[in-house]
Amino acid sequence: MIVIASGKADKNQSKLAEEAAYELNAVFKERNKKSISYFIDTYGEPILVIGKNRFEYYDQKGNEPFFFHPNSSAFRLKRLINGEEDPLINASGLKRGDSFLDCTMGLGADLIVASFVAGQEGRVTGIEKNPLLGYLVQKGLMNWQAENPHLEEAMRRIEVQVDDHLHYLKSLKDESFDIIYFDPMFTSAIRASSGIDPLRRLAAYDDEHLVESVAEAKRAAKKRVVFKDHYLSRRFKELGFEVQIRPSSKQHYGVINLE
To answer: Which InterPro entries match (predicted)?
Structure first.
C-alpha cells in the first residue's frame, strides 16, 4: 500500500502521512501534485490519502474511496436525546456506567451509541481484525469534528483493539465486560447492498469460530451477550440466543441473559 498526503497538504499532513505509512508498514510517497489515479496506475497498489479532515482509502481497482464517517450514530443519538428508544440499547440493557465490548466493530456506529449511553463513567471497546480498517476507524473516532458535542465526546471515549475477537475474548478474565455484542455483517440477505461496498472490501469476517466466540463471551460478560442478525438467520437458535422480534425490521437481536 502507498500512503500520500492530500493535494493541498501542509507540512503537518505530510508528516502524518509518513507516520501512517510507518504504522501500517506501508510506503510513503511525496505527492508532488500528482493525481491519485497516477499513483494507482504507476504502483498498482491501494492508496491511502491523508487529508486534513479525513483519511481516504482507494483500492487499486478505482472504486469509490472508503473513509470513516459516524454514519447512523448521528441520528440515533439525536433520537436518544429526544427521549426515543434505540433497538441496540433496548436489547443490551446498557446503562450509564456499564462496560460494553463490540466484537465486530466495523465503522463503529453501534459503539458510538453505546459510548453515549454508558457515559464518562462507562467503558466502551471495539475489536477489529483488519489492521487498516481498525486504524482508519480509530483515527476517525479521534479526529472527526461533529456539530453535536455529545457525538464527538462519545467518539473520543471509545477504545479500539486490532485483534481477532476470539483471541481477544480468550485473553479476558471472567466477567470483564457487562455486555458483549456481536454483529456479524453481510449474511446472504445483506450482501446485495451497494451502500456498504467500501466497508465490505476492507472488513474481515470469521463465522467459523462463532460458536467458540459466543462461549467465551458468556464467560467474559457479566450481564448479557447480544447478537444481531437477519430475522431469517438460523444462528440465533444454533448459538442459543433468545430472539427479540422487531416487526418493522429485517434485523433482529438475540440475547443471552447471564444474571
So the answer is: 16SrRNA_methylTrfase_J, SAM-dependent_MTases_sf
What's the half-sphere exposure (Cβ side, CA atoms, 13 Å) at 253? Answer: 19
Contact 93, 56 (CB under 8 A): no
- Beta-carbon contacts of residue 227 (< 8 Å; ≥ 6 apart): 181, 182, 183, 214, 235, 236, 239, 241, 253, 254, 255, 256
Contacts of 194 (CB under 8 A, 6+ apart): none
User: What cell numbers appear for 201 in the block?
Assistant: 472490501
Cβ count near 125 (within 10 Å): 21
151-185 b/e (C-beta count within 10 Å ≥ 16 → b): beebbebbebbbbbbbebbeebeeebbbbbbbbbb
Per the CB < 8 A criterion, the answer to whether 13 and 5 are in contact is yes
Min mean pLDDT across 3-7, 98-102, 123-127 is at 3-7
pTM of the model: 0.89
In the chain, the domains with their CATH numbers are 2-58 (no CATH), 73-257 (3.40.50.150)
Q: Do β-strands 221-230 and 242-244 pair in parallel, antiparallel, or remain unpaired? A: unpaired
* Positive/negative CA dihedral, 68, 105, 204, 232: negative
